[in-house]
Amino acid sequence: MAHEEIIVGLDIGSTSIKIAVGQFSATEGNAKKLHIIGALEQEAEGINRGVITSIEDAVKSVTKALDKAEKLIGIPIESAWVSISGGHITTQISKGVVAVSKTDGEVREEDMERAIEAAKTVTTPPNYEIIHVIARSFTVDGQSNIKDPVGMTGVRLEVETFIIEGLSSQIKNLTKCVYQTGLDIEDLVLAPLATSEAVLNNRQKELGVAVVNIGGSTTGVAVFEQGDLLHTAILPLGSEHITSDIAIGLRTSIEAAEKIKLKYGQATSKGLERKEEFDLHEFDENEEGLISRKYLAEIIEARVEEILEKVDAELKKIERSGALPAGIILTGAGAKLPKIIEVCKRKMRLAAALGYPYDIISVIDKVNDLSFTTAIGLVKWGIDLSKQKKGISRFKTVNQISNKMRKWFKSLMP
Q: What does the DSSP assignment read for 326-372?
């Protein structure tokens, strides 16, 4: 098995770092399927709300995760697709226009590339860098909504792109952190986009759908319609906030609150009796007292509703509140809460379902763990890009960090 054959997704989250390793393997009928051969997580330190707060701690966490992964799969990991998230991410729509270069007026790949390049000349806010330029649709001589203009005839080619930008300092901190572990970065991918890659099929993207990834301290949202990315947002709320609410409400420690949430928590108090109780002593020997499960569920429900209201506010911005035919796909660690789908349907007035990775084979249980969807999505993203050039211009943020700097980072490694 050659090293090139493996593709690694590194999802750097605020609470944990997750790694998924995949490779292509032929199944019956020689159809190639993505095979996930390893998935693991490592507690994260030095990262808060998707942003690196201590490079030294973050490097240690990523290194530990990589060591575990290499032991697990028995192959050295040399490069990875890395997720980026955080409240600093902004988006804008930009258009690019070029003249078709060939005299016979046939649109070629190069013309598409030039149009996308032209769209990149937007005014990026100071101290921001472009992470993705996603071509949404092309127009040839006034005929709009063309998905792939190659081979068409015309004089003028326009493209509408969706540009995703991030704060330069945050991007540099993230890349620095990964390089210091000795790993190369294939590319940075916005976390909600990677998640969508894992859990959405083309039909859902055509109809109109929102992926909501409830992580530890942030919630990522990506909305698609007619196959195109319509909107993306990263909200500063996640499942850690639910745990904090439980700790305050039950006057107990964060550690005990997390255990209580996992054992007795559910997203709605409906159907629970006040009489159903559990003893705090079970989770913390210094504590005594019976707690009603209904009261616990009320605490959780309030925060889950708040997260969903914030998601709905994002849909209102693009006039899609209650108007996405394929509904809401919930994923991430926070989506594991029992009955969260019921609350989501009620609050969002839309169909809702849990998002599991599809179209992959694996013997690993973690593949069906909702908190691994971003890491698996990164692997799918890497494989898709190596198979075909998507309509996503591979604008490599990290290549702007010259090789000199890479070598310098690596020379600093212990």
A: T-EEEESGGGGSTTHHHHHHHHHTS-EEE----SEE-S-GGGG-GGG
d(CA 244, CA 66): 30
Question: By the 8 A CB rule, do 144 and 97 touch?
Answer: no
What average pLDDT does the structure give for the chain? 90
Q: Which two tokens stand for residue 160?
A: 């509408």
Burial degree of 342 (CB within 10 A; 0-12, 13-18, 19+)? middle
CA dihedral in degrees (314, 232, 20, 267; nearest 10)? 0
Q: What is the pLDDT of residue 385?
A: 79
pLDDT tens-digit readout, 221-247: 999 999 999 999 999 999 999 999 999
Instruction: Tell me, rounded to whole angstroms, the distance of Cα 350 from its chain centroid.
Output: 22
Report CA Rg, the chain: 23
Give the three-class secondary structure for 282: helix
Q: Please tell me the predicted confidence (pLDDT) of residue 34.
A: 85
Q: What DSSP string runs through 53-117?
A: S-HHHHHHHHHHHHHHHHHHHSS---EEEEEE-STT-EEEEEEEEEE--STT-B--HHHHHHHHH
Domains, the chain, ordered by start: 90-166 (3.30.1490.110), 202-356 (3.30.420.40)
d(CA 381, CA 80): 11
User: Residue 357's pLDDT band (boundaries 50, 70, 90)?
Assistant: very high
Tell me, what's the pLDDT at 412?
61
Token reading at 17: 């770092």
Q: Would you list the DSSP string of 299-325?
A: HHHHHHHHHHHHHHHHHHHTT-TT--T
Q: What is the 3-state secondary structure (H, E, C) of 15-55?
A: CEEEEEEEEEEECHHHCEEEEEEEEEEEECCCEECCEECCH
Question: Given this model, what pLDDT does residue 397 score?
Answer: 46
Largest CA distance in the chain: 83
Measure the CA–CA gap between 406 and 414, rounded to whole angstroms: 15
Q: What is the pLDDT of residue 274?
A: 86
